[in-house]
Amino acid sequence: MVKNAVEIHDLHVVRGGRTVLEHLGVSIGGGVTGLLGPSGCGKSTLMRCLVGVQQVEAGSVTVFGEDAGSPGLRARVGYVTQAASVYDDLSVDENLRFFARVLGVGREHVDRVVDAVDLGDHRGQVVGRLSGGQRSRASLAVALLGEPDLLVLDEPTVGLDPVLREDLWALFHRLAERGAAVFVSSHVMDEAERCDRLLLMREGRIIADGTPGEIKEKAGAETVEGAFLAIVRRDAA
Ligand SMILES: Nc1ncnc2c1ncn2[C@@H]1O[C@H](COP(=O)(O)OP(=O)(O)OP(=O)(O)O)[C@@H](O)[C@H]1O
Question: How many domains does the chain have?
Fold first, then answer.
């Protein structure tokens, strides 16, 4: 199990003249860590910092001891954005074989990741004709090709039906059990319970950090959503 996959210190990000992340500090280790907060609170921006594609005003982000985005991290970090990152005019198989070549991994990995995301029945189908959920699973399959030690998943379950959501969360836990650090964002509070550790975010700051149980207990709330509201009200008082 990875202990401190990610170390963030005093991270400050301004986008479009607005402060989006405010002197944020946090470490992320093994297991499934959820980043939850309302739309626009800065989740995607934080994830972009982890993979080294966000311009930052101040602070540092290291991943496995190296600066985020370093070439040495390329094979160790898998990143799935909200937009599908596969080619629409290629089939699932063709996409995976192409990315396997780019990443320098053997073809046998294609079978593994197709099974992992349960796209076996759609291998030969052109991605442009898949449903939104199937397309996001194809993107996830690409991210799994290199067997990353850190998986950064930006709202991977948006638009998926409850059964697929359940399957994907089970997959995240299987990956974490095999030793990967899995960092998943969501703005759906009912996904919180599925995380080993939760970071609640609001307006560029982390306002709670703990297991779902710890966060609820500390806030005196029955649900994570209730805890979020209680913390916001307490902060405003
Ligand atoms: N390219 C950009 N230029 C300027 N500002 C941006 C840009 N992208 C995002 N922002 C702003 O940064 C803030 C944080 O956006 P971000 O996408 O990180 O939020 P989020 O929590 O991921 O939201 P969502 O859940 O809706 O995806 C928002 O106020 C947004 O308007």
Answer: 2
Domain boundaries, position 229 = 202-237
- In one-letter notation, the amino acid at residue 146 is G
For residue 57, what is the domain's CATH number? 3.40.50.300
Give 60 Cα–ligand 1 centroid separation in angstroms: 20
Query: How do residues 21-52 score in pLDDT, each as one tens digit?
Result: 999 999 999 999 999 998 899 999 999 999 99
Order of all β-strands in the sheet with 58-63: 18-28, 6-15, 58-63, 66-67
Cα separation, 47 vs 183, in Å, equals 9
For residue 237, give the amino acid letter.
A
CA 2 to each of CA 80, 132, 211: distance values in angstroms, whole numbers, following the listed order: 20, 32, 17
Q: Is the distance from the beta carbon of residue 39 to the nearest atom of ligand 1 less than 6 Å?
A: yes
Cα–Cα dist 78/63, whole Å: 12
Q: What distance in angstroms lies between residue 210's CA and the mean position of ligand 1's atoms?
A: 24
**98 Cα: distance to centroid of ligand 1 (angstroms):** 31
The residue whose CA has the least distance to atom 30 of ligand 1 is 40
Tell whether 10 is covered by a domain: yes
> What tens digit of pLDDT does each residue of 184-206 get?
998 888 889 999 999 999 999 99
Q: Which pTM was predicted?
A: 0.91
Its ipTM equals: 0.95
- For residues 93, 166, 177, 140, the Cα torsion angle rounded to the nearest 10 degrees is 30
